[in-house]
Amino acid sequence: MIVTKKLADMEALRGLAALGVVIYHYLYGFVPAAGHSSAAPINEMVMVERPFLLAFINGPFMVSIFFVLSSFVLTTRLVREADPRVAIIAMAKRFPRLFPLTLIGALLPALLFAAGWTYNHQLADVIGSIWLERSGGVKIRDDWPEPSVFGGVRDSILLFGRGLSQYNSALWTMKYELVGSIFALAAAMLLGSRRKVGADAVITLALGVVGLTVHPLISICVATVFVTKYVAHPDFKIGPFTVAACIIGGLILGSTYKSLPEELLIDPWSRRQVLRLDWLAHGAGAILLFLGVRGASGSSFGAGSFGTYLGRLSFPIYVLHLPVFASVASGLILVLGYSESSVMLAFFVSMGVLLAISHPAAMFDEWWVGRLNAMLRRFYPQRARAQAVTADPAP
Fold first, then answer.
1. 3-class secondary structure for the chain?
2. pLDDT digits (tens, 9 = 90+) for 124-144
């Protein structure tokens, strides 16, 4: 994949977001918070408690960054050169674009489980990690069917409708990535390229409210399109003070996590509204961080090859990290015993394995996106064919 200089910062940010999700889930699974684990030896090693997390290990904030960046890249041309046909083709492309890696993300844990190579449940019994038991691997309790390889294939299709996966909990976002990208493309088509701030604000608000009934991430996608049209245009430049304010403000909002007291969560309705507010705060923070990084283009943030490389692998890293944790990290900790050193060693070994399998997955994904674009290019208007991109971030 060729990354333009203007998008290098976005690739680096996307790669850091993927790494942040990995660390967030690792801490959740293998370093349970005090009072939530029967294994005491490392409870004091890392304290990650609400109401605050560090922004870059706050999983929901990292996911919001994915959605902001995806919506930006999907619609940045559409809001400059409005063409409804291009938006409609892009909508039709979203499911086949997302599905192959989603299938791999569900099939890998199914194969590992069938081979007896997943150990998260055994380790969860040892350390008392509720998250590792219920979300760190293939779900085998409650009303879930007996896991199988065919079940993994079936799961990869159904999760786009139900937003829930039996085989890989990280894949819950695929439903909202699909729906959110369609909302974003629809918003770009309706907003068009003409600047009419009042009308565009009304359209954005209306679509955002409808999207909120599905999930706040959808509203975040819609809001990003408005920002893309009016703020983050190709010549977007802001001063260093504004850059710093956007980045700091984004990180502050991104560090909040279930910050309201439990006393306010008196019923399911209030819990749902608080959850929405949490997501909207993360979305606002992600947009601010995006603007800060975008406004600082020309800095060295995205210039390094590591940042670009990490961005290239971000989608495979996201969809594959939990199966690696359930197999490699859990198995290694069981063998070595639960301690600070074994947890740290297991993390680095898991990251090595994850990067090793993410590289070919990224190459396959790039090949598939190229083939998909080649198949659909003839449907694009003549002037848009040369601009059919071969890279398309998701999530």
1. CCCCHHHHHHHHHHHHHHHHHHHHHHHHHHCCCCCCCCCCCCCCCCCCCCCECCHHHCHHHHHHHHHHHHHHHHHCCCCCCCCHHHHHHHHHHHHHHHHHHHHHHHHHHHHHHHCCCCCHHHHHHHHCCHHHHHHCCCCCCCCCCCCCHHHHHHHHHHHHHHCCCCCCHHHHHHHHHHHHHHHHHHHHHHHCCCCCHHHHHHHHHHHHHHHHHHCHHHHHHHHHHHHHHHCCCCCCCCCHHHHHHHHHHHHHHHHECCCCCHHHCCCHHHHHHHHHHHHHHHHHHHHHHHHHHHHCECECCCCCHHHHHHHHCHHHHHHHHHHHHHHHHHHHHHHHCCCHHHHHHHHHHHHHHHHHHHHHHHHHHHHHHHHHHHHHHHHCCHHHHCCCCCCCCCC
2. 999 888 889 999 999 998 789
